[in-house]
Design brief:
two-stranded antiparallel sheet, globular
């Protein structure tokens, strides 16, 4: 039995019927859709979805260093089609007293001593990322950004910890709400690992480029848009 672009085949006795009236129209019949919102601000209650990925020196946001941030605002055209915007990214200097887990650095391939890394102190790095996000939110006529990520609370935790350390007053992101592509990909494709979810969605994946904040953000953005576009309009 098909619901729009998603397929579900329950074990049902012969002759059993199914009432799909409780499902959104866009899921039941992709050819039927309600009017498309003209603005992304209308689609998400004044929030602009922004894909974020961070690379870090470990798993604990108050102990391990934040090393790289990438953010991609999501765009929506007049037909309600979602696409990734331009990537905003910077390397970050480890904050004083922070720890670097060698295993994490081995996975990310980050060399914090590299002379061309061009890392910014946390306050400057946040200023740079937040300014780009605020500009995108204003252009989209949104009141605030909402972080979208794969295991999004991990990324938000490191962002919020850095905001607290530098006492940043202009954080454009909602402090605790997120959209998580782990949940969305599990619903849409039955996959929760980013690489597997991306490939299940028919998106190209290069394992050699993974664990870069820029690459992971780009692929998460493509995945998020693919799922939203297949769902249809509300």
């Amino acid at each position: 039995m098909a619901f729009g672009p998603f397929h579900y085949a329950p074990d049902a006795p012969a002759g059993a019927s199914f009432d799909s009236s409780c499902y959104p129209v866009a899921m039941d019949n992709p050819q039927q859709s309600l009017p498309t919102p003209l603005r992304i601000a209308d689609r998400f209650r004044g929030f602009l979805p922004v894909i974020v990925d961070v690379e870090t020196g470990g798993f604990e946001c108050h102990r391990h260093a934040l090393l790289e941030i990438a953010a991609i605002p999501i765009l929506m055209d007049e037909h309600g089609v979602f696409t990734p915007g331009e990537c905003i990214t910077t390397h970050v200097e480890p904050f004083p007293g922070s720890e670097l887990d060698p295993k994490s650095l081995e996975i990310t391939g980050i060399d914090v001593t590299h002379p061309f890394r061009d890392a910014k102190p946390e306050k400057e790095a946040l200023d740079f990322i937040f300014q780009g996000v605020r500009m995108a939110a204003r252009k989209a006529e949104c009141q605030r950004a909402i972080l979208v990520g794969h295991n999004a609370h991990f990324d938000l935790g490191f962002i919020n910890a850095a905001v607290g350390r530098v006492d940043h007053k202009r954080n454009p992101f909602h402090p605790f709400s997120v959209f998580d592509t782990v949940t969305l990909a599990g619903m849409a494709y039955g996959q929760t690992v980013l690489s597997r979810a991306v490939q299940a969605a028919g998106i190209e994946w290069n394992g050699d480029e993974a664990h870069s904040a820029v690459y992971d953000t780009q692929k998460t953005a493509e995945l998020f848009c693919k799922i939203l576009n297949r769902w249809g309009t509300l």
